[in-house]
Amino acid sequence: MASPIDDGVVLVTGASSGIGAAIARQLAPRARVLVLVARRVDRLRALAAELQAGRPSLQVDVRPCDLSDRTALRALAEAVLADHDRVDVLINNAGLGDIGLFEDADPDRLAFMIDVNVVAPTLLTRLLLPAMRDAGRGAVLNVSSGFGLTWMPLFAAYAGTKHYLTALTDALRAELAGTGVVVTQLCPGPVATEFEAVAGNPTGQQVPAFLELDPDRVARAGIAAVDAGRAEVIPGLLPWLAIKAGQWSPRWLLRLLYGAMGPMLRRRLSGCARRPPVADGGGPEERGGR
After folding, report:
1. Active site residue 258
2. Where are the alpha helices (DSSP H) in 249-282?
3. Cα 139 to Cα 185: distance, rounded to the nearest angstrom
4. What is the end-to-end Cα distance of the chain in Å, rounded?
5. Longest dimension (CA), the chain
6. What stretch of H or E contains 237?
7. CATH: 3.40.50.720, 3.30.70.330, 3.40.50.1820, 3.40.50.150. Which one for 9-269?
8. Of the residues 158, 176, 196, 285, which is catalytic?
9. What is the pLDDT of residues 193-218, one digit of tens each?
10. pLDDT in tens, 144-160
11. 224: number of Cβ within 10 Å
């Protein structure tokens, strides 16, 4: 059976940079229409021009949207359905993180992150899914994180949003079995994107370069998983081993190990300056896996 990507209408959120832009570039030779969604319209237009220069027959639909705005989300879905009848593949890629002690997090930033990481993919999927189901063909790719399968201190709220995506993905996949619509989750480890700059890492420690994956590699893994109808993919051997070690470890053991780290983390980070809430010009599309 042909992949819904081929000659289909594909919507990518967070398409202006990182994994989202890499996915768009790799889908350009295959899709009939690419709907690119993000807040930074200048980057979207530049990417659209690049893709159409490489394949003039490709239709690129640039849709600037603040994914934290529920009214804008509904308007986006309605406009895309009006113009293209349906979306064959929805790629929920946009997201952002928050690193540090939960008690020091900015409440407005937390709410913004939950809107982008949880509410946006939920509403977009709900609004676009019925047309896929009626067509008997379609796919949803939720770009999550290794923290959707495990957890650790300093990522409390972010990991919570990604665990939500795991539950949503698995439940929808079961509900849609036999309909021709597949739901897949992409769970990368560290990716060389703008994630940490936007997440406001207060620890001063950087991920070792050998552990970071290139966005193109992560994008290829996600697209291949959609083509194969897989439930989940974790790109890269080392990230796979690290994430599965956390996922398969007994929860009591993780609580014991991470609990022992708690006092040290509090001494080191309590009261550390945190990045302020994302302002216009930044964006939730500035994401990578963790």
Report:
1. no
2. 251-269
3. 11
4. 33
5. 59
6. helix 237-248
7. 3.40.50.720
8. 158
9. 655 555 455 555 566 666 779 999 99
10. 999 999 988 999 999 99
11. 15
